[in-house]
Structure formats: C-alpha cells, structure tokens
Amino acid sequence: MDSVTVNTKEELSQAKNSNASEIVVIGELANKLKRAQKVTLLSAGTLAVITALLGTATITAPVTGGMSYFVAAPAAALSGLEIATIIVAASLGISLIIALFKGYEEIEYSKERLVLRRRKPKA
C-alpha cells in the first residue's frame, strides 16, 4: 500500500492524481477538507450555481478587494451550507473535493488528521 502524507492543496492534488492508495492529510488542510466534504452532498444543479457565483467572485476579488465574496451569502442560502464552508470549499477547489471524495473514502478523522483510502473499483 502506498501511503502519502500531505499538508498542502498542491500535495493533495498530486497524491490524488497519482492514485495513491492511501492519503493522510495533516494540519489545517485536514480540518478544511473535512469541513468542505459537505459540498459533495449537494445536487449537480446547486453545485453549478455555486461554482458560477464563486467563479465570478474569484475573478473580481482582486478588483473589489474581496468584496465580491458577498455572493457566498446567496450561495449559502441556496445550498443550506454555512458561508464559511462554501468559502473553504472554494479555496480548496470544489472540483478537487468532489473528485477526491468520489475516488476515496474517509477511514479516520481527528483534529488535524484525515485518512482517506482509495475506493475499490466496482466489478
């Protein structure tokens, strides 16, 4: 079993892309990922709207000094998630989170440590 320990978004993405059989996420990234996992429960339509809203906010954030992230409030109302959860998910990358939890299952979580194991292919 090839286990990879990561503590940055870039390392996490690389571990997922290399199909590591187990990913151990440590530090604040583990807490953020656990919190953002809730996004995977949303419908495809809701995810599309949130992604569109946050995509626009991300593009305009440098110009508006971050004020464009006020669109997170309607996104939160639409999804039923907390604003902070949506912002965390957006900062990690919603597509990364969905792909990660689609291909990996949570084995263990404690503060600042999340263990994910690659799902077995369905026969």
Describe the structure.
- This protein is 54% helix and 18% strand.
- It is an alpha+beta fold.
- It has one domain (3-118).
- The chain has a four-stranded mixed beta sheet.
- A hairpin with a 2-residue loop joins strand 3 and strand 4 (113-118).
- The longest helix is centred in the middle third of the chain and has 21 residues, at 44-64.
- It starts with a strand and ends in a 5-residue tail after the last strand.
- Number of distinct beta strands: 4
Name the overall outline: globular
Question: Strand content of the residues, in percent?
Answer: 15-25%
Could you tell me the mean pLDDT?
77
Q: Quaternary state, please?
A: single chain
Along the chain, the helix and strand elements come as EHEHHHHHEE
Number of domains: 1
Largest sheet: 4 strands, mixed
- Biggest β-sheet: strands ordered side by side in the sheet: 1-2-4-3
Uncertain stretches of 5 or more adjacent residues:
56-69
The radius of gyration over CA amounts to 15 Å
Structural class: alpha+beta
